[in-house]
User: Which sequence fits this backbone?
């Protein structure tokens, strides 16, 4: 029983940050029709920025609780600085082009951002320990779990609900959905499609960055951290279905629980377990579990 509970909690914790990152990936695909290989680099920028902001807050003698605010500011800073440069300076020149070309462009951007992070932060690892200790430990039965993991689960639920509400219950969200369904019709009705692209890309980068920022206390922030993230993020959206919010949630849960089960039962199959699950889903549902008839509906 204790092992099953540990697998469940570890799986939910892993799925939480993964859902946040994958949500940004599927949102960008739904609106811009871009399979963004560089999404993992935005995650890494968020993690590095969080390490820098938390360290700066510590040197300014702020209370440890402010480290959470520092991580949020780090994610916002990445979105505000990187989104305009990337979307206006690069991506908008390739809209409507062949999908393979778009993948190659984002892959080139991924390589550039990898070197940029090394130039800015070097090759040494960074550690963000302050936020991890804020939530103490949680006792369930005779097992003790880290409270930060439960905070991360709550954050994932809050962000998922906020994105769903923003898309389905606000005027700007309905405009975004109109562009997703048909950008030509939306443009003919007076919608500024270019502005919607910028908004969606900015939100996608923010989600990747906030996923990286709040995962930083759990990992060693170092070069190469973006590679593993983009691989498992693609696994999530492939399992759930590209362009689906509920698909991203279910896909993250499946990947998180599969990985957690492998870690506790068969550690040597940790990474392989994700691909097994992805292959099984693709055999039954090649379009993903939640893919609609409208291929890019969120």
Assistant:
């Amino acid at each position: 029983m204790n092992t099953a509970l540990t697998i469940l909690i570890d799986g939910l914790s892993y799925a939480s940050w993964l859902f946040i990152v994958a949500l940004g990936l599927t949102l960008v695909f739904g609106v811009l029709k871009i399979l963004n290989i560089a999404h993992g680099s935005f995650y890494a920028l968020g993690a590095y920025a969080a390490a820098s902001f938390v360290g700066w807050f510590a040197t300014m003698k702020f209370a440890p609780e402010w480290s959470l605010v520092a991580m949020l500011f780090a994610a916002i800073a990445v979105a505000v600085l990187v989104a305009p440069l990337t979307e206006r300076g690069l991506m908008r020149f390739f809209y409507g082009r062949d999908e393979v070309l778009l993948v190659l462009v984002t892959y080139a951007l991924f390589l550039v951002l990898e070197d940029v992070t090394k130039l800015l932060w070097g090759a040494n690892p960074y550690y963000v320990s302050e936020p991890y200790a804020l939530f103490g430990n949680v006792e369930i039965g005779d097992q003790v779990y880290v409270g930060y993991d439960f905070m991360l689960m709550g954050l994932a639920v809050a962000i998922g609900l906020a994105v769903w509400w923003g898309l389905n219950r606000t005027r700007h969200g309905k405009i975004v959905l109109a562009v997703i369904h048909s950008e030509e019709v939306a443009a003919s009705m007076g919608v500024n499609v270019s502005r919607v692209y910028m908004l969606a890309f900015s939100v996608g980068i923010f989600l990747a960055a906030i996923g990286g920022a709040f995962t930083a206390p759990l990992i060693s922030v170092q070069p190469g951290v973006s590679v593993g993230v983009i691989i498992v993020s693609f696994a999530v959206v492939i399992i759930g279905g590209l362009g689906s919010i509920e698909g991203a949630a279910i896909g993250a849960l499946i990947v998180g629980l599969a990985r957690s089960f492998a870690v506790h039962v068969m550690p040597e199959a940790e990474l392989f377990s994700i691909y097994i699950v992805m292959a099984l889903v693709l055999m039954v549902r090649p379009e993903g579990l939640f893919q609609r008839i409208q291929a890019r509906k969120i």
